Amino acid sequence: MTERRSEHARLIPGRILKSERRHHPTVIEEAIRRNASFQLRLADRITAFAGSMSFVFLHALLFAVWMLFLERSPWPTLTLVVSLEAIFLSTFVMIGQNRQAAFQQSKADHDFETQELELKTNTQITRQIHALTAELHKRVIGVPPPGGRASPSAT
After folding, report:
1. Cα gap 130→30, rounded to integer Å
2. Residues in contact with 35: Cβ distance below 8 Å, sequence separation at least 6, in sequence order
3. Per-residue pLDDT tens over the stretch 97-134
4. Contact indicator for 30, 103 with CB cutoff of 8 Å
5. Which residues contact 134 (CB under 8 A, 6 or more apart)?
6. Which sign does the torsion angle of CA 136, 142, 145, 149 carry?
7. 3-7, 89-93, 127-131 — which one is most confidently predicted on average?
8. How far apart are CA 28 and CA 143, in angstroms?
9. Directed axis angle between helix 25-36 and helix 75-141, to 10°?
10. Sign of the dihedral defined by the CA atoms of residues 36, 40, 42, 45, in that order
11. CA 40 distance to own-chain centroid
12. Which of 84, 85, 107, 132 is the S-S candidate for 26 at Cβ 3.0 to 4.6 Å?
């Protein structure tokens, strides 16, 4: 059991383990799933870097050096490189969006199941309270409450 817990903890990213707040169970499951695959970890890192200001600054610097110092007429090659980079980055964005949509669906399904269980439990408790109230009313007053039944039928 301890081995499984340590294996389980190894798959959870450090940013989630270090966090002080509690996470939704679906967040933990998704983090474990993404961290278990090298491809998903690599895609996460590329997407995280491509969405940062460091990425913007690095590209501005590289393109400026390229245009000013490396090539006399950089436009054809620069256009090709930027187009290819845009194709790959858009693919990573789409991968991230697909994973985010799957995660949101998983979280919504988990929330729905939890709410349905709570509704069922609350309905059972309400029926038990009604039955106890009717029984108490019958014992104190001696007759069943008007319009009420001694025990509600299950529907």
Report:
1. 42
2. 11, 12, 13, 41
3. 888 888 888 888 888 999 999 999 999 999 999 999 99
4. yes
5. 144, 145, 148, 149, 150, 151
6. positive
7. 127-131
8. 55
9. 150
10. negative
11. 15
12. 107
pLDDT at 155: 44
Alpha-carbon distances, residue 114 vs 67, 101, 125 (angstroms)? 58, 20, 16
Average pLDDT over residues 126-143: 90
Structure tokens at 11: 């798959």
CB burial readout 65-76, b (16+ within 10 A) else e: eeeeeeeeeeee
Amino acid at 62: L
- Chain centroid offset of residue 12 CA: 14
Span 29-56, average pLDDT? 83
Mean pLDDT confidence for 17-38: 74
pLDDT the model gives residue 154: 45
12 close to 28: Cβ distance less than 8 angstroms = yes
- Report whether 47 contacts 89 (CB < 8 A): no
Phi-psi map region of 142: left, alpha, beta (phi>0 left; psi -120 to 50 alpha): left
